[in-house]
C-alpha cells in the first residue's frame, strides 16, 4: 500500500499532523482545511466500531473500506471488550471514551473519530499516551448548531415551548405568555468560533446589537459581521441575552457561576447550545429563582441525559431540548461523511483532514521534509544502537543545520522521528507524532534541539542533521565526539538519506538496509578484504566508504549491507588484524 506522498519508510509508523490551532481543543481558523498524514494499515480490512447512530452516507463510505460494526448503547464493559478487536472507533457526544477504552484496546485502536465538534467526551491525554489519533468533524454541524441556538433564542423570548405545552393541556393563556422582543437588544456571544460567528450573523439579521468575547478570535472576522469584540466583563454585564459557544475546557468549566451571574444585568436571558458544564447548573437555578436570570434555553447538560426530575429541565422559565444542536438531517449526513473520510483516510495512511491531538505540518512542508523525516528516524536509530547496553539514554541533542531562517523550518516532525528512531529499538512502545514527546518524557529522555543557521542558498530545507547522545558509553568508541558524546550526522543526497559523519570520522553511506562500521588502521586493501568476506557469504554490499583522520592513521569504514550478515561473517571481519573495533547496526 502506498500513501499519496509515498512515504514508504513510514508505513510501519503512524504519523499524524494537523494545525497548531487544532491543538489542544478548539480551532480558530476553521475555513482552512487542515491536513493530517496518518498511518498505513497492515494487510486485510480494518475493523471500525460505530458506537452511536451515524448518517447512512457515512456508514456506506466506511463499509467500502472496512468491516463496520454498528453497535449502539454499549455499556462501558461491552465497549472495552469490543475495542480490542477494533482499529477505529466512531462516536458522537453520548459515548465516554475514557482511559479504560484505550487500555482495553491493547494498542490496536489507532483512530477515534468524533462525529461532531466537542471532544470533551474523549480522554485526549490517554489517547495521546496510547498513540491513538483523535479526529473530529468540525464543520458539518456548524449551521445546524447555530440554527438551533437561534431557534432557542426566539422560542425562549416568546415562550413558545411553554405556550405550546399549555395549549395542549387545554388552556388559552394569552397574557401569561407575553414575550420580549429581540430587535435592538444586546446579545453577547461567548465564543466566537464557527457556531458563535454563525449565531452572531443571524442575530444581526434579527436586528440585535451583537457583542462577543473570545480571546482568540480575529478582530477582522468580528468586524466583517458587524460584531464588537469586548472583554468578558463587558460581555456579561451589558448583555440582555447571552449565548454560549465555547468548548468545555478547564478554563471554561462553570464559567457562568454565582459570581458571574451576580455581575449580569437583572433579567438577562441565557442560551446554551455548547456544553452543559460551561454553566454551574446549581448557580443557574439560584439565578433563575432570584430573578437575575429571567429565562434560560438549554440544549446541553452537565450530565446527559439529565436525571429524572432535574430542576432546571422542569423549571417554568427554562426551555430545554435533548442535545439537538447537531440533529438535522443535513448536518448528520454531512458529519457522517466528514468523519468517515477522516477515519478511513487515517487508517489508510492518506492525507486526511482534522486531528485534535497532534501538531500540524502542512502538506507542502511534509512533501519537502519527506527524505529528512526518514533521515531523522535513521539517525536516531543508529545513534541509540551505538550506546553500550545499560548506559541509559537521557540527554539527546538534535542539531538542524540550515540556511533557512528558523521561522521557515518546522522541525516538530523531525524531532518526533528522531525520538521514534531512538526509542523504538529499545522498547516495545509504538511511537508516532501523537505520542513521541510523551513517550520520551515518560522514559526520562530529554530532547534538546539546536538550530545552526548557515550562509548559502535556502533552497534545501536542511543541510545536515546531527544527533548526539550525552552521558553514555559507546560500543563503538570511534562514534564519540571530542566532547565524549555519541555523534552521528546525516544529509540528504539527491533525495537519499545518507550517513555522513560518525564521531569525528567523515563517511558516506546511504541509509538503507543495515550498516557495518569498522575502525581500522588506514591501509590499502581493507575494502577488498571486508568486501570479499561479505561476498563469500552472499551478503550484498550496497555502499562502502572510508573516512580517515589522516592518511596512514585510523579510518572508519562504513559498509551498507542489504541483509544481516551471520555471526560467523561478522566474526571474520572482526578477526582482520587491522580492524580495531566494529559494530553492526540495523536501520
Ligand atoms: N449542541 C450541539 O449539538 C452542538 C454543540 N456544539 C458545541 O458548540 C461549541 C462551539 O463549537 P464550534 O463553534 O464548532 O467550536 P470552535 O472551536 O469553532 O469555537 C469555539 C470558540 O470558543 C473560543 N474560546 C475558547 N475558550 C474561550 C474562552 N475561555 N473564552 C471565550 N472564548 C473561548 C475559541 O477561541 C473558539 O473561537 C462547542 O462546545 C461544541 O461542542 C457544536 C455543535 C453542535
Ligand atoms: O458536535 C458537537 O459538539 C455536538 O455537541 C453534537 O453532538 P452529537 O453528535 O449530536 O452527539
Task: Write structural notes for this entry.
Helix 1 packs parallel to helix 13 and helix 5 (142-157) crosses helix 7. The longest helix has 23 residues, at 363-385. This protein has 4 domains: 47-136 and 332-348, NAD(P)-binding Rossmann-like Domain (Rossmann fold, 3-Layer(aba) Sandwich); 141-320, NAD(P)-binding Rossmann-like Domain (Rossmann fold), CATH 3.40.50; 360-503, 60s Ribosomal Protein L30, Chain: A (2-Layer Sandwich), CATH 3.30.1330; 512-586, Alpha-Beta Plaits (2-Layer Sandwich), CATH 3.30.70. It has 587 residues and is an alpha/beta fold. The strands form 5 sheets. It has a 7-stranded parallel beta sheet with strand order 9-8-7-10-11-12-13, with helices on both faces. Strands 16-15-17-18-19-20 form a 6-stranded mixed beta sheet, with helices on one face. It has a 5-stranded parallel beta sheet with strand order 3-2-4-5-6. The radius of gyration is 30 Å and the shape is elongated. 1,4-dihydronicotinamide adenine dinucleotide (NAI) binds next to helix 5 and helix 7. Belongs to the D-isomer specific 2-hydroxyacid dehydrogenase family. It comes from Brassica campestris (Field mustard). It catalyses: (2R)-3-phosphoglycerate + NAD(+) = 3-phosphooxypyruvate + NADH + H(+). One of its GO terms (cellular component) is chloroplast.
Amino acid at each position: 500500500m502506498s500513501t499519496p506522498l509515498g512515504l514508504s519508510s513510514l508505513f510501519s509508523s503512524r504519523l499524524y499532523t494537523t494545525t497548531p490551532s487544532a491543538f489542544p481543543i478548539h480551532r480558530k481558523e476553521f475555513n482552512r482545511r487542515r491536513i493530517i498524514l496518518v498511518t498505513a494499515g497492515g494487510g486485510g480490512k480494518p475493523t471500525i466500531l460505530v458506537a452511536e447512530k451515524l448518517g447512512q452516507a457515512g456508514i456506506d463510505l466506511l463499509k467500502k473500506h472496512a468491516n463496520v460494526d454498528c453497535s449502539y448503547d454499549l455499556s462501558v464493559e461491552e465497549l472495552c471488550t469490543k475495542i480490542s478487536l477494533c482499529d477505529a472507533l466512531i462516536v458522537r457526544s453520548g459515548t465516554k471514551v475514557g482511559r479504560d477504552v484505550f487500555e482495553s484496546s491493547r494498542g490496536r485502536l489507532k483512530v477515534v473519530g468524533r462525529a461532531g465538534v466537542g471532544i470533551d467526551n474523549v480522554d485526549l491525554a490517554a489517547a495521546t499516551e496510547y498513540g491513538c489519533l483523535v479526529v473530529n468533524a468540525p464543520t458539518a454541524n456548524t449551521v445546524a448548531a447555530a440554527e438551533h441556538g437561534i431557534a432557542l433564542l426566539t422560542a425562549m423570548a416568546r415562550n413558545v415551548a411553554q405556550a405550546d405545552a399549555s395549549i395542549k393541556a387545554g388552556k388559552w393563556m394569552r397574557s401569561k405568555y407575553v414575550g420580549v422582543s429581540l430587535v435592538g437588544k444586546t446579545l453577547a456571544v461567548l465564543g466566537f468560533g464557527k457556531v458563535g460567528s454563525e449565531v452572531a450573523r443571524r442575530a444581526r439579521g434579527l436586528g440585535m446589537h451583537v457583542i462577543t468575547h473570545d480571546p482568540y478570535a480575529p478582530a477582522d472576522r468580528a468586524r466583517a459581521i458587524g460584531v464588537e469584540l469586548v472583554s468578558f466583563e463587558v460581555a456579561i454585564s451589558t448583555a440582555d441575552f447571552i449565548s454560549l459557544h465555547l468548548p468545555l475546557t478547564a478554563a471554561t468549566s462553570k464559567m457562568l457561576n454565582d459570581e458571574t451571574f451576580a455581575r449580569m444585568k437583572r433579567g438577562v436571558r441565557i442560551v446554551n447550545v455548547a456544553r452543559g458544564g460551561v454553566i454551574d447548573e446549581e448557580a443557574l437555578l439560584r439565578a433563575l429563582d432570584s430573578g437575575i436570570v429571567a429565562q434560560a434555553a438549554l440544549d446541553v447538560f452537565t450530565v446527559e441525559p439529565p436525571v429524572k426530575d432535574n430542576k432546571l429541565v422542569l423549571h417554568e422559565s427554562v426551555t430545554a431540548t435533548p442535545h439537538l444542536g447537531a440533529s438535522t438531517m443535513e448536518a448528520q449526513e454531512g458529519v457522517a461523511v466528514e468523519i468517515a473520510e477522516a477515519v478511513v483516510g487515517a487508517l489508510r495512511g492518506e492525507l486526511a483532514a482534522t486531528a485534535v491531538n497532534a501538531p500540524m505540518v502542512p502538506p507542502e512542508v511534509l512533501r519537502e521534509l519527506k527524505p529528512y523525516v526518514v533521515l531523522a528516524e535513521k539517525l536516531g536509530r543508529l545513534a541509540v544502537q551505538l550506546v553500550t547496553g545499560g548506559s541509559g539514554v537521557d540527554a539527546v541533542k538534535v542539531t538542524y543545520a540550515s540556511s533557512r531562517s528558523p521561522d521557515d523550518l518546522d522541525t516538530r516532525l523531525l524531532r518526533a522521528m528522531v525520538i521514534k528512531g531512538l526509542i523504538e529499538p529499545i522498547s516495545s512502545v509504538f511511537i508516532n507524532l501523537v505520542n513521541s514527546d510523551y513517550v520520551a518524557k515518560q522514559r526520562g529522555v530529554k530532547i534538546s534541539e539546536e538550530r545552526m543557521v548557515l550562509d548559502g542558498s535556502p533552497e534545501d530545507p536542511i543541510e545536515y542533521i546531527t544527533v548526539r547522545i550525552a552521558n553514555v558509553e559507546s560500543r563503538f568508541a570511534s562514534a564519540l565526539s571530542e566532547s565524549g558524546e555519541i555523534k552521528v550526522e546525516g544529509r540528504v543526497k539527491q533525495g537519499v538519506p545518507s550517513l555522513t559523519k560518525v564521531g569525528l570520522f567523515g563517511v558516506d553511506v546511504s541509509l538503507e538496509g543495515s550498516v557495518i562500521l569498522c575502525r581500522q588502521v588506514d591501509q590499502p586493501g581493507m575494502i577488498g578484504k571486508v568486501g570479499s568476506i561479505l561476498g563469500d557469504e552472499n551478503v550484498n554490499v550496497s555502499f562502502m566508504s572510508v573516512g580517515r583522520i589522516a592518511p596512514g592513521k585510523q579510518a572508519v569504514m562504513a559498509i551498507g549491507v542489504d541483509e544481516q550478515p551471520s555471526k560467523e561473517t561478522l566474526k571474520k571481519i572482526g578477526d582482520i588484524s587491522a580492524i580495531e573495533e566494529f559494530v553492526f547496526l540495523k536501520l
